[in-house]
Amino acid sequence: MSQVSLQLRFVIGLCLLFASTNTLCAETGGINFSRDIRPILSDKCFQCHGPDEAKQESGLRLDDRKVALEPAESGERAIVPNHPDASEVIKRIAATDADSVMPPPDSQKTLTAEEIELLRKWIAEGAIYEGHWAFAAPERSQVPALPNLNSPTLKTPTAEIDANAWNNNPIDRFILSRLNQSELKPNSEATKETLIRRVALDLTGLPPTPTEIDANLQDNSADAYERMVDRYFASTHYGERMALNWLDYARYADSNGFQSDGSRDIWGWRDWVINAYNANIPFDQFTVEQLAGDMLPNATPEQIIATGFNRNHRLNGEGGRIVEEWFVETVIDRVETTGLTWLGLTFNCCRCHDHKYDPISQKEFYQMFAFFNSVDEQGVLAPAGKNGENTPPLFSMRTAVHADGIAQRERQMADLEGQVQKAKGNLSQLASAWAEERRTPQVDYASDWQQIVPSEVKSTGGAALTQQSDGSYLASEKNPANDSYEVTLPKLGNSLTGVLLEVMPDASLPNQSLGRGFNGNFVMTDFTVELVGGSLKKPREIKLARVEADFTQTGWPASEVISNSPKSKPPLKGWAVEGNNPERRLDRKIMFVMERAVKIPKGASVVIRFGNRSEYADHNIGRFRLSITSIAPEKISLGSSGMPADVLSAISKNPAEWNDAERKAVESYFLASVPNPIREYEAKLQAAKNELAEYQENVPTTMVMKEAKLRDAFVLVRGEYDKPAAKVARGVPAVLPPLPADAPADRLALAKWIVARNNPLTARVWVNREWERFFGMGLVKTTENLGSQAEYPVNAALLDWLAVEFMEPTTLPTVNGVAAKAWDMKALQKLIMTSAAYRQSSQVTPEKIEQDPDNRLVSRGPRFRLPGEIVRDTALAVSGKLIDKIGGPSVRPYMPAGVWDETSKYGNLRNYQHDKNEGLYRRSIYTIWKRTAAPPTMLLFDAPNREVCTVKRSRTNTPLQALSLLNEVTFVEAARNLASRMLRDGGSTVEQRLAYGFRLALARTPNDSEMQVLLSGLDADMQRFADSPEDAVRLLEFGESKLRADLSPAELAAFTLAANVIFNLDEFVTRE
Amino acid sequence: MSVHPLQIQDALNRRVFLRSTPAVTAAALASLGFAKQGFSKPTDRSASNNPIGLPGLPHIAPKAKRIIYLFQSGAPSQMDLFDPKPQMVAEQGKDLPESIRQGQRLTTMTSGQKNFPIASSIFKFAEHGESRMWFSELMPHMSKLADKWCMIRSMHTEAINHDPAITFCQTGSQLAGRPSIGSWVSYGLGSENEDLPAYVVLTSFGSGRKDDQPLYDRLWGAGFLSSKHQGVKFRNTGDAVLYLSNPPGVSTQARRSTLDRLSALNGQHHTQIGDPEIQSRIAQYEMAFRMQSSVPELLDTSKEPQHVLDAYGPDVKRPGSYAANCLLARRLAERDVRFIQLFHMGWDHHGGLPAAIRGQCQDTDQATAALINDLSERGMLDDTLIVWGGEFGRTIYSQGSITQDNYGRDHHPRCFTMLLAGAGIKGGLTFGTTDDYCYNIVADPVHVHDLNATIMHLLGVDHERLTYRYQGRDFRLTDIHGEIVKPILS
Q1: What is the residue-wise DSSP string for A442-463?
Q2: Does residue A351 belong to the interface with chain B, where contact is any CB pair within 8 Å?
């Protein structure tokens, strides 16, 4: 093969290698191992001959020159430098028979002729290895000189380029120098209107207002553009726009994920992110505080809240989950997320085995694991387990608002305390009055109820029932969802006609009330009386004819209890008494009367069973006492049931005749068992106390990191939680620089290591993502991975220059007069945004699409569809409805019906109800996010579901997006409000009004032919709505916002559709 | 006004479309896995937008043009439905021998139990069809199709709890983040229908256990594949497809007029900017408009003959029921939707199993059989693959106490049963054997990865070759596992 044809094939090879066009591979020259050879070896060979020790076939590894040059197990030498024909590698990859060809046919991998030729040439040139480019610390590249724009030898006819514009910013010289190797030339600068919209959307996610546009248009000073950019950097909406991506990385959500997917509070961390961006804290600090802010000396509340980053993972609360298993998964999730977010490395391959491509071993993976396994939690939902509960460690978000709330409740308690004391002073009077009233008419009290001492009392659900001094039984310890109590009465001599159950409050019960439900309530669904034993062959149930209670909760009458039978299928209704209401926390009585007197067979026992088979778990009775009677059924009443004999005797007398003992007996009975003002105020006071406690408990918390005792970490065989092998210490992969030697190897050290100057990855990862933010694609396309499988950067010199400049600024600009610091995020962005490259128009030519479809070389301005959140925010802003409020708990805007209930009846995030006021119009970043059923419109617009770390969204264009923008209430209501604005503020003519709306949305005025289309459509719609005014009204009533009465419905409806058209324009959803 | 706006718009549209290359237009149409038949295969570069799939796919001649996957969420009890163990009657109430359990892990719902009392099934089993396939009395309709079913009794999986297990079935991984099987199919094979997505999901709540088991977006999510491959869940509340209906007061004519304006304005903008994405957007809006009529037409079963409705059972009239979804599945299949997946919830019977499973079978037995008969009568069973099953099996021992007519069963990943029928499947075959306790597999184990590999094979996809590079690694549905289960193929 002649030298010329080899050269030619080599060039073709490079082109194919980049799977791209000849434009992109124009950056030629000699063989560059990192760019040309390593990707072939990595992709085609490393799986069996790479870093994974367990899989090094024939003892050969091709990622290590030393090993590759040594004779393999077979005695052959894989690579003989300068002698491709003597190299076994070349023989094998060029072989044609299935037995010897490499890669083997079953690997599904093949080498192209061009790749083989490249490897041959590389060996011929000496088989020089380099480490993977991204694992060596970046060095500051030389900024290329501005090419001689008039040189006839240049491929790009750059004469049209404004030399001044492209000479100011180093970025432009890198771009131009790269473009000069292609046949593309850059675009001219975009219009001012396009630029202000581009900048506003990029920095704040909101469109520029007409005032801002006018100010910018009128500003002809040299630094008008720069000052415009600075203004958006100063906006508090900047933090919201930046946080959006960060929330995807951090897998932020308002729910715990997994099966029941209940709620959590971690919006405090979201606020922290927004504020951190607004305050422009440097990226190294931003990193350290989020990974290990809790471990900083004298950590501030903000630094602790920042650590929520690695608490945003899902938490499994599924019944039956094995805690150890999910502990491991949670820790691995942290390693994964941290690796992906900061290092652009995928660690999860190493969970089970050494990495196939990157030099990271399984052991090293678990050394990283060890940094994250000592957080003070179990990796699963808090054992308290209730949906909607935050899982510790937590941090209180107590604010001034909450302090006021607490003070107000304390004042209310003091007032009530006074009322109680006042009423207590009147006890004697009140008790006498009650007794007087009770005295007439006289009842045969003696014949009423007889308290019994059971022979046996038990709970079928395992609760402990302890007898109290007053003969009642108090339940404690285990409280199953549905308990039932079984009481065996002592042998009764005579007959039985009724049973009385008293339920009483107790200080030990929830809410100091009567029931064991979390709120102090109970539900009794069943009550049966059975005769057992003695002469009976089988138990006999006694029919209960009548039931009466002294109080029932609305909807929970006593009658339910006797209409249920043991055969009724739960959940059942039953008797309840508002035990959750402190004012109702009183002794309650319910009696059951037999149809006729039941004669008790000889030797038989009476067994009474009562319990809760309602849907209300834990709502079991807390304290009870039983009495029986044998008087004629028709005479039985609740009457003076349960009244002690001394009280009965006292109240039969005139209060004036009471002795001290009698007075005391009556007063204490009155106080304890009769509704009275003292109790009423005491109940109110207790309610106020509870409310305060609840309020204090509900001061929002946010989930944070907190170190607990050091837990041992082990290599897990095949990554399985129950197969620990060798114990490992904390450490970082050997291919990367070591941890600082002067500090303990903990999470804080890891965080500092990540942002150390010599870490080769972090700065590159970040500047690459910023490039992606502004130009749609990174300098390395795979922004999620800079490992050895990553693409070689399209402009490696620029990537490294930016990375170094980010860490050690020399030319980063000031932002709003503030000089750039190291790791200055705003300054880096401003440097990019003030480049001529960024300011180009986004016009596309067939030539550019053909040669550089993804605009990797930046020969045009970036143009791509906005994220779903920003589309919605922009529509709200343009409509005038957007609520300009930063931070706070999540809100509930419009959602399709049943959004949370379509596929789940679990958890507390159910039955979605949208907010009525400002919650409908807050920015989308505040929309409540339930992971298993995330906001549907956002998913349609490519948002991830936030179950795992996502550093890059796809960008699709689908009919479902069209349906959403056309029909979803959010956008239709926004269109109507924009229509109102047009009619109110747009001017007097139809043209002016349409132009006004158009400009609000797109920052420019429509041209004549656009106006023509809008006008004729509006005419037709006006006619349509004039013909069917009811349609206009229906359209205008869509959405919660108030309708302006002063506008003609037909006109407003027609303008609404015009606004609907504007919101659906490609230009509206696109950042030009 | 000299020119009628619609004429302007028409002229613009024509210009836009005439100047667009077939590849670009096809790409535009291909989003969301929508296809436009008749377009030539685009070049490699836009391959991922190919409406008819990736180049080189199908890898092999497909047996199945489409699949209807009847997922029974919550895990049906195999020993009460398909895998009779009469020898357990004698073991009733005895503890599960340690020699059988072999220390295998249990969920924390039963790992604390003092003993593991064997609960033999109270349901009667009988052999059916020429193949003498066993079914319990709970499946009177499905059992009539014994000779069409292939019953795999030796399924096994890795996860022991619902969320990870169902995620594993759907994505080949217990953890969130991977694409679902339907997304892989949409990515690899594209769609054959112009107006409907390639992957449609239908869900129903079961009457056996009304609160179980929740489903998650991720089960039909696209993971790291382009989100246009995510399954489109037809909703049971409101619009079946999100935002399908025009807003109140907006007629079809008014909507058409909106779209004409959009098309004209977007077209003008395209002339200035030149970005083919704008043409793509114009096409998406036209497709949205077509969906507004094609979806209601799809959902309208009023013209179905009475005997067909009757075959699916009375539930067919209740929208969102399993029976209604089965009928809808047939209508989707007729329209060449490639991956149709039903999820029926309610199979998680830790307690009160006998009553609950009766309810579930009432929901699903008749409608499943009707679907197969219906497809068969239309000649579509030959190229439609049917899969019926859940995420794992249940334990032979009772969770909680046993009474004469009541018991419950915990999760059991070591063996369970799934049924397949239709395209490429050997009917009347019972495959795989479990031990006497229905606890371990004794012959022909089939892992979930194997099942997924087999499903892909029948659709014409080599599961080892359909990969996607993400985070530097080539991912596939079956991870690095999966063997095609050849004996069950016809």
Answers
A1: ---GGGS-EE---SEEEETT--
A2: no
Interface list for A 228-257 with B (CB within 8 A): 257
Cα(A216)–Cα(A225) distance, integer angstroms: 8
Give DSSP secondary structure letters for A283-312: HHHHHHHHHHGGGSTT--HHHHHHGGGGG-
A512-549 pLDDT tens trace: 889 998 778 999 999 999 998 888 888 889 989 888 88
- What was the pLDDT predicted at A643? 67
pLDDT of res. A151: 58
Which residues partner with B95 through β-bridges? B117
More confident position, A110 or B194: A110
Span A784-804, pLDDT tens digits: 999 888 889 999 999 999 999
CA gap A368, A349 in Å, rounded:
13
Residue A711: CB partners within 8 Å, gap ≥ 6?
Answer: A373, A374
Of A567 and A1007, the one with more pLDDT:
A1007
- Among residues B220, B217, B184, which one has the least CA distance to residue B200? B220
Residues of chain B positioned with their CB less than 8 A from the CB of A1020 = 257
DSSP 8-state symbol, B92:
T
Task: List the one residue out of A855, A830, A550 whose CA is nearest residue A673.
Answer: A550
What integer best gives the mean pLDDT of chain A?
A: 89
Question: From the CA of B249, how many Å to the nearest CA of chain A?
Answer: 4
> What pLDDT, on the 0 to 100 scale, is given for residue A615?
82
Inter-chain residue contact B226 with A357, CB threshold 8 Å: no
CB contact under 8 A, A903 and B272: no
User: For A967, which of B243, B264, B282 is closest by C-beta distance?
Assistant: B243
Cβ within 8 Å, pair A1057-B5: no
Q: Does A888 touch chain B if contact means CB atoms closer than 8 Å?
A: no
Look at A853 and B45 and tell me if their CB atoms are within 8 Å.
Answer: yes
In this prediction the ipTM stands at 0.86
Total CB pairs under 8 A between chain A and B: 284
B32 contacts A842? CB cut-off 8 A: no
Range 479-518 of A in CB contact (< 8 A) with B: none
Put simply, the answer to whether B469 touches A789 (Cβ < 8 Å) is yes
Closest-CA residue of A relative to B178 is A948
Cβ-based contacts of A54 with chain B (< 8 Å)? none
Distances (CA, A) of B334 to A429, B52, B287, B306, B397: 85, 18, 19, 19, 43
Cα Rg of chain B (Å, integer): 25
Put simply, whether A34 touches B (Cβ < 8 Å) is no
Alpha-helix runs per DSSP H in A887-1007: 936-940, 959-967, 969-985, 990-1002
Q: What are the start-end ranges of the H helices in A18-107?
A: 38-44, 46-49, 65-69, 88-94
b/e per residue B473-482 (b: at least 16 CB within 10 A):
bbbbbbeeeb
The per-residue pLDDT for range B416-465, each reduced to its tens digit, is 999 999 999 999 999 999 999 999 999 999 999 999 999 999 999 999 99
DSSP annotation string for B174-220: SSTTSPPHHHHHHHHH--S-SSS-SEEEEEE--SSSTT-----GGGG
Mean pLDDT of successive 10-residue stretches along chain B, which has 490 residues: 42 40 43 41 31 84 97 97 96 93 85 89 97 98 98 96 95 94 95 87 90 89 91 93 97 96 97 93 94 94 96 95 97 96 95 93 97 97 98 93 88 97 98 97 98 98 94 89 97
- What are the chain B neighbours of A1065 within 8 Å (beta carbons)? 262, 265-266, 269
Q: Tell me which residue in A356, A1057, A1065 faces B266 most closely, judged by beta carbons.
A: A1065
Q: Which of A956, A965, A994, A1021 to mutate to test the interface with B (most CBs of B within 10 A)?
A: A956
- Quote the pTM value: 0.79
Nearest CA in chain A to B284: A959
